[in-house]
User: Fold these one by one.
Assistant:
Number 1:
Amino acid sequence: MNNPVSVVIRNLTPTFNEGRAAVKRSIGQDLTVEADIFREGHDIIRASLKWRRLHGQVWNETAMMPLGNDRWRGTFPLLQIGICEYTIEAWGDEFLSWQEEVQKKFDAGLYELTNEALEGAQIIEAGARRASGSPDAEILTKLARRAQTVSAHELRSFCEDPELVALMSYWANRELSTTLHPFRKVRVDPRRASFSAWYEFFPRSAEGKADSGSKFRDCLNRIEDAKAMGFDVIYFPPIHPIGETNRKGRNNSLKCEPGEPGVPYAIGNFRQGKNGGGHRDVAPELGTLEDFEWLVKETRRRHLEIALDFAINCSPDHPYVHEHPEWFFKHPDGSIKYAENPPKKYEDVYPLNFYNKNWKALWEELSDVLLFWCARGVTIFRVDNPHTKPVAFWEWVIAKVQTAYPEAIFLSEAFTRPKMMHELAKIGFTQSYTYFTWRNTKQELTDYFTELTQTEVKDYFRPNLFTNTPDILPEFLQQGGRPAFLIRAVLAATLSTTYGIYSGFELCENIAIPGKEEYLDSEKYQFKARDWNAPKNIKKFLTSLNRIRHENRALQFFETLRFHPIDNDRILFYSKATPCKENILLIVVNLDPFQTQSGYLQVPLKNFGWLENNAYEVEDLLSGEHFFWSGSQNYVSIDPLTRPAHIFRVRRWLGRKKGLDHYA
Amino acid sequence: MNNPVSVVIRNLTPTFNEGRAAVKRSIGQDLTVEADIFREGHDIIRASLKWRRLHGQVWNETAMMPLGNDRWRGTFPLLQIGICEYTIEAWGDEFLSWQEEVQKKFDAGLYELTNEALEGAQIIEAGARRASGSPDAEILTKLARRAQTVSAHELRSFCEDPELVALMSYWANRELSTTLHPFRKVRVDPRRASFSAWYEFFPRSAEGKADSGSKFRDCLNRIEDAKAMGFDVIYFPPIHPIGETNRKGRNNSLKCEPGEPGVPYAIGNFRQGKNGGGHRDVAPELGTLEDFEWLVKETRRRHLEIALDFAINCSPDHPYVHEHPEWFFKHPDGSIKYAENPPKKYEDVYPLNFYNKNWKALWEELSDVLLFWCARGVTIFRVDNPHTKPVAFWEWVIAKVQTAYPEAIFLSEAFTRPKMMHELAKIGFTQSYTYFTWRNTKQELTDYFTELTQTEVKDYFRPNLFTNTPDILPEFLQQGGRPAFLIRAVLAATLSTTYGIYSGFELCENIAIPGKEEYLDSEKYQFKARDWNAPKNIKKFLTSLNRIRHENRALQFFETLRFHPIDNDRILFYSKATPCKENILLIVVNLDPFQTQSGYLQVPLKNFGWLENNAYEVEDLLSGEHFFWSGSQNYVSIDPLTRPAHIFRVRRWLGRKKGLDHYA
């Protein structure tokens, strides 16, 4: 070591995985960093927060401020998508320590300060040398000369001279500074990563025909309908060739009748497609790759994005089976193993062995598949069952894809144990599916979303709240009828900033296989007739929700969610606000799809910086009704059959001037 | 990478400073480690906790056990003083996963298991290859052969064969295991580091003469007296030559009269001693280095240790001033700066500049000083003001000394801001002075000791509770008379496992400079007359406390301290217990030195695993009185003038047999 470490920098936040994983933010957001910073003795410390693009050459920097008890804070803006690295540099500041010494001595009545003046001159001269080549050098040289000749009284004000202080701050002696290692990282995602509404549909079901499938060229109506509802990401289940061997029939039957379309998750058919019939091809029944590229372009023209499903499943007809048999698990007799979860058998899917002797080739191939689709305009991937593949693979492949396409977004569909879900988020997944689907009661929702928004989880885990999926028709939706769909839509759209629905939700489809949470006659296995404008649909309601999300910045911040008291266990009451509180929403949801529920809620006036006697306007953004409230306690009554929630925008009333009400 | 990382290992505890600092334990203790351990898919995971001497060749290992929710725990014993490194190795276990598959399939009624049997044979054969060279190889080869021929029914029991399971567990396939990096460390200290009682005295005051100093050869009486009271570490303030230039007189006077002995902390007099008159010499008025070595040997013969003060202070007469002027701070005119804390001046002390151009030589020299005294039988150092020297210096020098003398103990005298105090403990100090001296009320003591014993602090910070020091005569002792000394002694001796007193405490000396917490006529500056057996001394009481500490293992555990309710704010009620609860103490201290206080306390029967109606014997170890209690609520009344505390040993009463009471 050339210089010993002089400053201790510890307990930096946000941090997790011992500082080795990147914090998540999206473009335009800030990152606020805190740390304990201290050193021996009494020198005055300065600390600088420094950031740059990953492996960049030049640091940006901003001063950190002490909060007391040796805790420091600094904030920097995130203006470029990609990975940004940051660190802290701190040092005992020679000039400020000298200034304080002069102040203290003079103020204590010690006027013999010749040595101090000469010492100051030396410190300033050294500053001038560091500034050499800049016009500041000359100014500092003059100031140093002045320091040599000033009287004690003059020295007292000289040491606080604003020009001197500013220049010595800029040209500080950092020879003995300490820089935090290893550098920390923040991953800056596109805005869509932290604020978006997803709409999932099977391209083959675009037109809702009972006995045949739609093609890519038929999908624009569905996409425009989704756009009209306010969705901005269109997510397709796998679009690749579907295997024929052991193909499943309707309702997951082992027997497949001729003409049945098969499950899109049984990927690969070496007989189809230009690129081998695997993950780089589209199923010919949907059209050609050119058709798909046309659809991507048309969708983008409408300011929506298409997300693809990245499902690492191989049907027995996948080209890998022949080209790379070494990538699969084998029986002792050399035959390839199908997937099993004893006693269940999945004979139409061969799992890949990520640890096979030729694993590097497999990993490279899978990353190439992702890059193939990125090159064709798809940079959003919903990843199927990532928890059944090595975490190390995801860490590697996401970093690789995002190096080439920094805007790429990966949504983790890991419905699994909590620690695995969180780890996948920490190592790179942009968004994550959640347990939301199974959280229904007030206590469950409060506990879960308090954990997601009020703990370190908020810095790495972005919940994408799906109300339903092709695999999950929750019991609450099966039982609760149309009101249940409205309730879950409000919750999904307001508890998090990203959410999604699987098509059919807007039609309140709720027929399950008895005793299961799976759809009866699921379109995973068959063509499906649908009237996309069927009566009693909730498309208008969804449209309102998405409009409210766009018009209210409060719904674009995730971690400002707070739950508040209401004296009824069937009503959930929470608020969302922007950090500066210029947009505040109070959201009240009747969780009971059958009965009207009422109660007294406690508006958290203190959280908004309001007084107990402030009057405020309350506007229900769903109904357009206006109310005038004052005080914290107010009454609500909600009939789920008409509208199961209030989304109140609240504004403090400042008074009436020239016949007009004014609001803060 | 040769193999991809297959298992995720996270959130290891205990941990602090992001895993880079060593946990503290003492010899004979265990270390219990927990971590989140998981991987993709459904394979059965095994995890092994591994440990060895730092940089050792061979790992010891023990199986970790799953606690649920992917959390695992393992414990290993610490049997050797020094640094021990440890890590976790975890893997998906091929054999156990195969075993589970066979069990599940068979139990689900699938009896066609030929492939499974052959696969098992392959797995066992591979185990035999790993065992080659051991007698196990042959047994495994036979078992593999059997696997090839067994029926499905036989396979079901064969896969659970105890010999097979044991051998396949031992010879597990760890080719794809993951090992946690970097390795973690635990510092194993001698027992004295975590359990000892310190007695501090100035050697020149050993005989208590008013006008002249004692010598090393006169110290044995004082040491034997301390031993009789039950102390086991004798701590001397600096014993080195004392500077003459600007020597301070009595009560810190700037004027020193001829014959005044000077402050031992103004170290160095180039006119004295064989080794330059600095930190390697003893003051000639105390005797010779040989006399000191004789005293060390005599003290050790009595099973006590001498601790020296490591004070990096230089008087203007220190040999370094002439030999290494570059090690000091200088005025612009080239003269050396004395210590200042404006407006205070310390003209008898020159501080060292740890960042001078020749800093490496300074650091080496200081480490050589410590090694010099280690070689002379002193391995316990009380370090003066470590927070005014670089943290990096302490980290380096403590590691260096402990590499040569693993038993070395460093006590940090950092009365400073909390984060610096904690950091010094994290980077290597064995024990630390605390804020105990200024914590007097029930709330203050409860809060402080809850933080020290119930948070991660317990894994790195060992509080050595000093009741007083030559610099600190707390107001409580000044005001509260003899009862205050008894109260603080009980608290110090029972709240922590290490504590100390500065001599004079046992005589209840409490005359301060008015308005300050400093001793009047402090022996730091002068000779001091004392009758070491003065009337009203509390030597018997201290002797009882130390005896109780030795006889009750509960007082040798730090983190089992718990506070319990009592309905009087002037009474502190807490318990100490061994982990297995075979020794339980209830300690009740009247914090009011003036008045009798009484109240109802709540015995935490549940904590001991007792029932509400259990009867138990309560023995006051200070008075010898016995009581019989039952239920949790009991009454105490404590007169501080007779005895300000109860130390109850409690034992559950099992019943009477043959005329004798039996206890658990």
Note: The radius of gyration of chain B is 31 Å.
Number 2:
Amino acid sequence: MSFEAAVHAKAIRLDTLALTMCGHAGSGHPTTALSLGHLTTCLMYHAMRWVPEDPGLATADRLVLSEGHAVPIIYAAFADLGAMIGPPDDLRPCTVEDLEHFRESDSPLDGHPNPREGFTFFDAATGSLGQGLSVAAGLGLAARGDELDQRIFCVIGDGESREGQIWEAIDFIIDHALSNVLPIFNCNGLGQAGGVSEQQSPERIAAKLEACGLQVHTIDGHDPKAIQDALDAFAAGPSQPMAIVARTVKGWGVPSMQGAGWHGKPAQGDKLDAALKELSATGVTLTGTMTASNLTINPPTTATRPEPVVQTAMGLKEAANQWDMGTLIQTSKLSTRKAFGLAMRALGHTDNRVWSLDADVQNSTFAEWFANDADLSSRFAECRIAEQNMISVAAGLAAAGKVPYCSTFSKFVTRAYDQIEMAMNSGANLKIVGSHSGISLAADGPSQMSLPDVAWFRSLGSAVGHSGGPACWTLHPSDAWSAFRLTQLMAEHDGMCYMRVHRPEVEFLYNENTEFTFGGMEVLLEGRDVLIVSAGYMVHECNLALDGLDKLGIDASLVDCYSLPFDEERLLDLANENGGNVVVVEDNYGGGLFSAVAEACVRGGDAFTVEPMHVTRIPKSARSADDILEQCGLDHKNIVSRVAAMLGITVRKNPPMVAK
Amino acid sequence: MSFEAAVHAKAIRLDTLALTMCGHAGSGHPTTALSLGHLTTCLMYHAMRWVPEDPGLATADRLVLSEGHAVPIIYAAFADLGAMIGPPDDLRPCTVEDLEHFRESDSPLDGHPNPREGFTFFDAATGSLGQGLSVAAGLGLAARGDELDQRIFCVIGDGESREGQIWEAIDFIIDHALSNVLPIFNCNGLGQAGGVSEQQSPERIAAKLEACGLQVHTIDGHDPKAIQDALDAFAAGPSQPMAIVARTVKGWGVPSMQGAGWHGKPAQGDKLDAALKELSATGVTLTGTMTASNLTINPPTTATRPEPVVQTAMGLKEAANQWDMGTLIQTSKLSTRKAFGLAMRALGHTDNRVWSLDADVQNSTFAEWFANDADLSSRFAECRIAEQNMISVAAGLAAAGKVPYCSTFSKFVTRAYDQIEMAMNSGANLKIVGSHSGISLAADGPSQMSLPDVAWFRSLGSAVGHSGGPACWTLHPSDAWSAFRLTQLMAEHDGMCYMRVHRPEVEFLYNENTEFTFGGMEVLLEGRDVLIVSAGYMVHECNLALDGLDKLGIDASLVDCYSLPFDEERLLDLANENGGNVVVVEDNYGGGLFSAVAEACVRGGDAFTVEPMHVTRIPKSARSADDILEQCGLDHKNIVSRVAAMLGITVRKNPPMVAK
């Protein structure tokens, strides 16, 4: 039996299983799966160097199924091959019987690719479209960094290629000359609601790819020879990054399920029987039986990746002195963003898993201190102004065992919230650092300010992640010592973290002896009358308010809640020690620290009075941090009056001015 | 004096003002502004048909400055022309003196374009990059809908064009043949952190644009004649959408401020004097004085847009009967997403300001009922799988007086959170409807589920918007009657709203006599022992739990909190009537309804016990809504046990099964 015939027969076998599996589930996307039967066969039974007994093998060629809804065709191959599924520590062969449980609550065969639910073949959860090629680029970057002969294949839908992120990924692939990544566009011409736009036709996609600088092979996606020739060209190592544009048929082999109206619709009962008949009829021209000689799955050339090297972390002073930045410390004043940059440089030298990614603002986030260090620059990736791609590239790096830190303005991190959540679902060990957080950047105005970010990341942290504990930690350091240490702590933790740093230079509040922990908080002043809870830049404004409160005879406590979630018991003790009076001061919209404190206070059934002070208007520009705080009613004078009012103490018209 | 000389002289005049203004502010992006001196002059003093005395005139040609940080060059033109600034009801001429207050807290000359802070010339707040061209496309769509001879100009940075959204907008412009929109790429070759990628070179950008199907004019952006010829070609009405790729110099005319390292850095003191000297030297070759004949600003051909027609809204039954959907109602069971689709169709017929936009899921959101109505289809825009572009296009439509509804899965709305926040900052009258919210869609798994969405939109609502009241309302209907009515209420409200609807068919809870309001809530059962607070799909699960609670002798109250924010006093009264015992049941991560209730409870200083029941694991697929609720510990049995435990009542191992 010829190679072509073998591929054809196998494709029909996989298509049959895909149709049946979706029929059982009563949902799924069989027609999309059928458009990939031949491509999947050529990839998984021949071109990809992998080990079905160990589908998570880190050195094997990888497949990122960006159009995640096509996953039944992959599950079909697994059942056909008896490849292993289940949790990494309890793998078992996938059987045809498993397919009957597709999409069930306890099945590892999830509705869309979901590596952490028992399918280690995949590196990333996909299904929210347009993200896979960036993940593939991250895997390709890591492979090159580890000098690994590894190929990364990525299957993208034609309709999906409307997502701008696909084109951010293409630019990134060219920028970084990632010829070990192969984008395969599955052009079946149909989206969910109807035909795809002419802008996503195979001709147009090919023209766009060529204009971007890729070498493009346009083929018939159901012609085994054409597919194999293109995959061979890729295997030969093209001079420039290449892509495959494959013309395919949605519902290939099953005329009764072709055309619009069949997206995400399984055939059941008689319709399924009819579909299976049509499909088998497609295969009758084939003769002979398939032999191993036709389709062979080869293992990767090596089974091991280089071992990571992690040494003892450096201290802030040690790091500053090592790179002649000692003066930074002597002034006892340093912005949290600079402390992050210094910590990144130190981390880079003690932990070679650490990568730094930035989006054209490395000179604002100070990721440049990592980027410009000759020993580290190979682990820095300039992602340009394309935040979505940056986050998904980092998810790919994380899947390859790296510890990527993505930095940009907190406001621009918003651009990639969907990508961040998908990375979280993938269990990616990803660190996100947003600079210029809150309002203290002032002059550039609201288009550069992050305001609902604490609420969103806190929400992620309310769920348990795949490695246990909060699915995401939100860290909000108030000074250089805490920012430096928290940057290190993120690398020591396996899981997603978001750290929020600020633009202004701020006084030191801590020193080398202060201990910081996930869930911890630091009490800066212990009083009896009222507990002021704050974090980040606002801790300094609260500090200023303390003098004013003291002048009014108010004995206030101040706690720096640099971690969300935090130790609720500890906070409630502090609140009780202060007569149950709490004021929460933040430089963001609601839903952040105030909500966290309120939630803690209502669980116990005790009576507390908690007053919020957060941004309650859409800010505009102001020349200085002081001006913007005044504009938003959050300066130290406002804090003094609010606390006084809460305690029923009248303040003179002009509350005592506090020297700054 | 020739046209060229006049443009050149004027550009130097504007550049001088831009340099000086940034020097005064001590911040801003003068070098970017200087790369646009000649282009701005040709646009604002000649090509654009507008009225400096009425810069917000809705029929005038529009300029969207996508690279918002270049705004000083626009402010310079305003001061030079004495064009009007300030709030719409209190306009005054802009003076050179105003420029000295650039970026001050009370200045209408904000750090980035900010129409709602006193600069009506702009339609959209920009500064978070990559969004402007989509806004321009929305303005172009509205102009065509109103049969208006209006041209929309959009200036995009080269580095900015790395954002995928720019290419989503380009595809949209071709799809909708928007030849009234002119993208102008400002290729000065420099980003913030350094030179732009070769992928953003003028050659590459031009090649990409041509591959996308645009007619491209590549010009010297400092050559008045070349600029004018290109703008004339656009004015002549090109056969296909066109674009200008302009080679420019960042810091044009000021060698001492050219090259990397000058992004966002103003020259001050001696450096400013030197820069101004260099700049004036550039102009010495010019002779003669400028006369009006050289540069003339023409008004638009018409001063009025068609008046909107808004009639009395239809009721649910009336609408259903009108389109032979009466059976939908007779079953007394209808999904909230279908009720939304029906409401959209009804709204479309009674309010011609209403537009519907969808992202390739109109057959899931039921926006198709609007799209397929021959009377409405011209006001439907299929945005394909590109959510960022959809939201910003809608912001453009809103700026033109339309009331756009954007629908897609709530999960995919996340893709556009940055665009949504910028639209909010623009004061856009935008309605966002997310379907398949929460976990009840079950089988497709977490890649399709919206989980932190309530926390994020609630955070936006904690700020006061430009039209007063919450900057964004979050609406979460539990049945068809509420979904239908809330869809209408959104159109009656000027401001941003987010409505969360679900996939499953659900029983009616209300009828034509039920009244729904922003901030309102509906009490479904009044008891004495415990208050169950819920919204959306979970109200039905709580309803099921009531029987189980009754069997345990628990007299529970159930309130449907379909609006965030809500009437806190009302909720506290209900809580007090139930012994201060509250359980909040949600199908999303934390930070949503529970936080809102907790916040209300801690303001007063009374003692309450509030228990959260929300999603606390990353969900996976399940075959049915019941299966996923069980997987997440949120089914009616869990609710019964949680409430019982809270009240110290022991439940039998198998709590009473409640028939469904």
Note: Residues 171 and 212 of chain B are 7 Å apart (CA to CA).
